[in-house]
Amino acid sequence: xxxxxxxxxxxxxxxxxxxxxxxxxxxxxxxxxxxxxxxxxxxxxxxxxxxxxxxxxxxxxxxxxxxxxxxxxxxxxxxxxxxxxxxxxxxxxxxxxxxxxxxxxxxxxxxxxxxxxxxxxxxxxxxxxxxxxxxxxxxxxxxxxxxxxxxxxxxxxxxxxxxxxxxxxxx
Length: 171
Known about the structure:
Largest sheet: 5 strands, mixed
Structural class: alpha/beta
Helix content: 25-40%
Number of strands: 5
Strand order of the largest sheet: 2-1-3-4-5
Order of helices and strands: HEHEHHHEEEH
Distance between the termini: 31 Å
Shape: globular
Number of helices: 6
């Protein structure tokens, strides 16, 4: 296949498209530190339009608020890279799309922006499923370490794709 993306990313995206298509499930994304990389990987796959409903690139806090409805108080209280904001991003992506499931990614890809509590390589993932109580939306933090900006973004995209597989539990 003609692609500029890493093979492992495209191969996993293919599985996501095929497996979700087989069960008639659609997906949406709210991406921050990955900047649309997950949506790009999915759209490398022919037939992805049957599965990918929407992708929101919410890189700035303003975009998180305006595109997927993250509350300013959550951003002020917990910061953009937090379980609370990831949870809100996933719910907002689900609400603002017709998708059956939404995954959110927010993190610190570096090389700058890290802190002692949220160092470079910190990424939060959340998944929301339509028809599930918002209290049951799950989010988790992963610390990849300083793999370099590209390495962190790749690892984050791979985890997000795994969360879109039908038989993978929420984080």
